[in-house]
Design a protein that fits this description.
This protein has two helices and four strands. The protein is an alpha+beta fold. The protein has one domain. Strands 2-1-4-3 form a four-stranded antiparallel β-sheet, covered by helices on one side.
Length: 99
């Protein structure tokens, strides 16, 4: 089963960045509304490897027919809303099974 990952929200905490982060280039290239397709439980081309570490367990479970995480957490049991682990500029992703 394929899983679509959609970028639903992008946050940026400039106060935390200025206080704690060393300057880096190209920190995040995700764009609002951007979509990726997970096939065979593999990380989609162009998807952030760090974000994949956050979403992969859910993506793999959904691609294998699983769902209903945390006993009814999502209205659609074949979906999950997961954020990447970047504390400075977190991105929220909607994962959902597709035909």
């Amino acid at each position: 089963m394929k899983v679509r990952i959609t970028v639903k929200k992008i946050a940026r905490y400039d106060d935390l960045i200025s206080e704690y982060e060393n300057p880096i280039e190209h920190a995040c290239t995700m764009q609002l509304g951007q979509t990726f397709i997970v096939e065979d439980g593999r990380c989609p081309n162009g998807f952030c490897e760090s974000a994949w570490d956050s979403v992969k367990e859910f993506a793999v479970a959904l691609s294998g027919g699983g769902g209903n995480f945390y006993d009814g957490w999502m209205k659609n049991p074949k979906s999950a809303m997961i954020s990447c682990n970047d504390g400075f500029r977190p991105v929220s992703f909607l994962l959902e099974t597709i035909e």
